[in-house]
Amino acid sequence: MQKPAADDRSTGSLCPSQARRCITEDPKWSLTTVPHLTELCLQHIIHNFEKNPILDRLLPEHQRKVLDGLSTGLPLAVTADLVNDEEYWKRCCIERWEVCDISSYGDSWKRMFFERHLENILKCFIPNITDPNQVLELIPLCKGYVRKLEIDQFLPPVQVGQKEERDGQSGPESDSEFGEVSTHHYDLGVLITALPHLEELHLTYGLKNCGMNFEWNLFNFTHQDCCNLAAAVKLCHSLKVLKLTQSNVDDDKTRLLVHNLLDHPCLVELNLSHNLIRDKGAQALGELINRSRLETLDLGNNQICHLGAEALAKALTENSTLTSLNLRLNCVGDKGGEVIGRALLTNTTLKFIHLGSNSLSEPTTVLFSQVLAQNTTLKGINFSCNHLGLGGGKQLLEGLVGNKALTELDLRQAEVDQETEYLIHQLVWANREVARLGSLQHPTTKPL
To answer: pTM of the full predicted structure?
Structure first.
């Protein structure tokens, strides 16, 4: 006889349909939210990347997740050589600087980061206070990426004792004594010579935003600064562009720089605008033009007179590399303008010359009328802010009639009558159109 089924409740067990559901304390918990072991491992790698940087041994898709999760605050000693991912360095740049124009850095975010990071350190470096190891330790990390440095200020040493003494005194004697205190800036020698790919160096020795603490010696490019820079540039064989502007560079410092730049193997552009260069400095630069591979020379806003212009003109008669010369805002006058014009009658290299604001008048245009009639190399001339007058304008117009090469002739504020300026503009515009159509028909093929 079959025994009746026992009551599940009497035995203390429940049938499956009556089983109680076990509810977790977290109502949102679900098996679908449990991370995979791979994800847990990747998170562990990210959190411990500084102590144990693992990247190359991971699969590509795992590397991507790790790189996306890495903090931009990791030490550069960890990330510099190991992380080449552009997205990571893009995050580093954007989080640090508001404006990031990658086109100025060869379209490389990593290069942008290291160049700007190094520039910031140098701009804030205070001699005798800032630890030099800040720069020295960065060199091996950034040397493979730095190709251009733009440093628009150098901080001088802080003379605490001298400052207190000066504040306790009054009169011109205390100011002059304080002005003699050494204010040498950071020596770039060790840095420049250790950057094998450095091609451009833009420097301004001065102080930005000094406010009420203005002192003339804060803008002093000392003789020792010049010696240090000249020696460093001489050894930087990869350097192509040197810009040293607004730094009170005078004739003596110019000659010192030139002495170290003679026969430089790569330098093609030199910018010494907005300085204190006179004729002797220009004479030294004339020698540099003949002994180097310079293609661009900018001497705008200096104090060069006709003797300096004569030295530069002599160099133009012998040089075969210089294509652009900027002499705006100098004092060459008609004596200087005429000798430059004579040089351009035989020069076959120079393409652009800027003679704006040089107190030029009709005698200079007489020579340049011949230049326009004979020279087939010049593409642009700037005579703005001079005193060419009505006769000077007509001289240029006569020379330009048969010229097919000139595409730029700036006569703004040159006292040329309106009709003559219009006719000149028409001729130059016609040359420009011919050149543009020619470039469209025969485009230049860029090397791969």
So the answer is: 0.86
Among the listed residues 445, 410, 407, 442, the one whose alpha carbon sits nearest the alpha carbon of residue 428: 407
Structure tokens at 140: 């091996």
Q: For the chain, list residues with pLDDT below 70.
A: 1-24, 26, 29-32, 159-183, 211-218, 443-448
Q: How far does Cα 243 stand from its chain's mean position? A: 8
Q: Name the token pair of 356.
A: 């704006």
Cα 388–chain centre separation: 36
Residues 6 or more apart from 423 whose CB is under 8 A from it?
A: 397
pLDDT of residue 207: 84
3-state DSSP of the chain: CCCCCCCHHHHCCCCHHHCCCCCCCCCCCCHHHCCCHHHHHHHHHHHCCCCCCCCCCCCHHHHHHHHHHCCCCCCHHHHHHHCCCHHHHHHHHHHHCCCCCHHHHCCCHHHHHHHHHHHHHHHCCCCCCCCCHHHHCCHHHHCCCCCEEEECCCCCCCCHHHHHHHHCCCCHHHHHHHHCCCCCCCCCHHHHHCCCCCCEEEECCCCCCCHHHCCHHHHCCCHHHHHHHHHHHHHCCCCCEEEECCCCCCHHHHHHHHHHHCCCCCCCEEECCCCCCCHHHHHHHHHHHHHCCCCEEECCCCCCCHHHHHHHHHHHHHCCCCCEEECCCCCCHHHHHHHHHHHHCCCCCCCEEECCCCCCCHHHHHHHHHHHHHCCCCCEEECCCCCCHHHHHHHHHHHHCCCCCCCEEECCCCCCCHHHHHHHHHHHHHHHHHHHHHHHHCCCCCCC
Closest residue by Cα to residue 167 from 175, 179, 157, 176: 175
- Distance of alpha carbon 118 from alpha carbon 142, whole angstroms: 8
CB atoms inside a 10 Å sphere around CB 74:
17
Q: Are 285 and 257 in contact (CB under 8 A)?
A: no
CA separation for the pair 256, 8 (Å, rounded): 106
Produce one character per residue of 55-69: b if its CB has 16 or more CB atoms within 10 Å, e if not: beebeeebbebbbee
